[in-house]
Amino acid sequence: MATDGANDHLVVFTPSGRRGQITDGTTVLDAARQLGVDLDSVCGGRGICGRCQVEPMFGEFSKHGITAQPQHLSVAVSMETDYHGRRPLPSQNNLACAASVCGDLIIDVPAESQVHQQVIRKEIDLGRLELDPVLVFRLIEIDTEKTVVSSELILEALATQWDLTHLSMHPSVLTQQETISSDLCTVAIRDDQQIVALWPGLKDLALGVAVDVGSTTIAAHLCDLATGEVLATAGTMNPQIRFGEDLMSRVSYVMMNPGGDTEMTSAVRQSL
Length: 272
Hints:
Shape: elongated
Helix content: 10-25%
Structural class: alpha+beta
Strand order of the largest sheet: 2-1-9-3-7
CATH architecture of the domain at 8-115: Roll
Strand content: 25-35%
CATH superfamily of the domain at 8-115: Beta-grasp domain
CATH class of the domain at 8-115: Alpha Beta
Number of helices: 6
Distance between the termini: 35 Å
Radius of gyration: 28 Å
Largest sheet: 5 strands, mixed
Order of helices and strands: EEHEEEEHEEEEHEHEEEEEHH
């Protein structure tokens, strides 16, 4: 039963088991999105694609502590009638985008309406590239027995030992200076302009991630920033597919739903 507020209702999705308090009047599709349920929707909730079909379950469900009644679901009949005129809609099913929460509910998401986790293997073809690394490493020598390591000493060492001048220093490097206790120190320089990191001793490996956010998939490539070598690749489905299968459907969702852009951005960030 609703507990968080007079206008909140407990909604449970099966088979995922996702559950939560949903505000009265929220569509089942939006409730699924709020709870992270993989419910498909190609048209962005406009009642066109029929991919968001769900089956509401009515009765007493002691396992979930819910008594779900038909009046707990408000259906936009005209929207479903328009869809049914184009494609079949099983009598036990409703379009999640056309049904609103009015009480505690159990909603079953059939297999054909689920966004299945895809196994993504998106290879990267580097071809023949001329490497121009953002970071370069320079090993310098400082007499730590005679003096305390300071920004001035590091800049002086780079100038005399590597002929590097006019460098700036990122504020975070100031705290890293305290870790330098040996005579040898590795300096990371970005774009030949700014010192961004320090390490005691020899350091010749820095890793970065190149991310490709596509309309269907997201691919991430772990790279050696010094050599450009791709060390590992991973991929996943772009979770924004819940808001529309193609870009135009997602644009429509944002235009019709205040805050939709924030929802979609958050979905990608969580996936990353």
